[in-house]
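In line with agreed milestones, the collection of sequences with tokenised folds has grown. One record among many is set out beneath this paragraph:
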Amino acid sequence: MKLACQEGMVPGDTLKKKLDNLAQWGYEGMEVWGSQVRDRVKELCQATSKSSVKISTICAGYKGCLLDAEKSERDLAVKEVKELLSAGAELGAVGLIMVPVFGQPRLPDLSPFASAVELERRLLLRLLGEIAPHAEKVKCTVLLEPLNRYETHFMNTLKQGVDIARRINSRYVKIMADFFHMSIEERDIAASLRTAGDWVQHIHLADSTRQLPGYGHTDFAAPFAQLKKMGYKNYMALECGVPGDPAVELPKSAQYMKQWM
């Protein structure tokens, strides 16, 4: 297991300073937002080549929506997802985090032929069938992210994410597990991780308050023990609020989590 942190959480007036801070505080990876990463590939590669901290993952940041009713929006999302997967490969990232749709359905309910969710599932499988060969070609993984019910109606649990990834049957279409969303949707975080197994290729860390681990009531000891038992070796990236000075709280959080790593 390797500890990472999203770039926007890290203090520092330059990229080098951010990486230096993370290295000093015990982090091995940095997750970047996808919206500008295609223009930053050279900068990020040069900076991380001189640092022990590497780019762990790209977090979304693409335009369009895979499950929009408008074909132009779907086409734009597919195009940008492929471009970000190519950028991720250049950066040596594990993969691109992808949320199929936020909020309520954008597709119509065509019952009794098919509900909106049924149409969404069929459409997503079709589009992932187009994206997966590109992910395989560049060797960068699509990381499907289940969100809690208040942020999306579609794909709320690890099981639902695994069911979709299994249908694609590609080593470069997997899921990620977010402890904050899991604290809402999963009865037992450790048990859900055990069931999902090797389908989990990335993790987001946040407490039940969506702040740093240790500022809520989520149990991290049992899930971390399960991840160790599974032989999980990829990154776990902080995606959460920082209740205080990041220069104080981020190193403290690293030490808090490493007691179980």
Observations:
- Residues 176 and 202 are 5 Å apart (CA to CA).
- The chain has a mean pLDDT of 97.
- The chain is about 45% helix and 15% strand.
